[in-house]
Amino acid sequence: MALKLEEAGVDALVFFNRFYQPDIDLLRLQVLDDLNLSEPN
């Protein structure tokens, strides 16, 4: 699929993962990636 898009002239491809939800600090312009794969119960 990506190859066909490239052949069609696409310049960029962006993928989103709904399980990875980083927070963005707008004051510092940084991505805060707190990836919690599990929580103690």
Shape: elongated
Largest sheet: 2 strands, antiparallel
| H and E string | HEE
Average predicted confidence as pLDDT: 83
Question: How would you describe the overall organization of this protein?
Answer:
The chain is built from one helix and two strands, in the order αββ. It is α+β, with helices and mostly antiparallel strands. It has one domain. It has a two-stranded antiparallel sheet. The longest helix is centred in the N-terminal third of the chain and has 6 residues, at 2-7. The model has no long low-confidence stretch (mean pLDDT 83).
Summarize the structure.
By secondary structure, this protein is an alpha+beta fold. Helices cover 15% and strands 15% of the residues. It has one domain (2-32).
Which keywords apply here?
15% helix; 41 residues; two-stranded antiparallel ribbon; alpha+beta
List the helices and strands and how they pair.
Layout lengths: L1 H6 L15 E3 L4 E3 L9
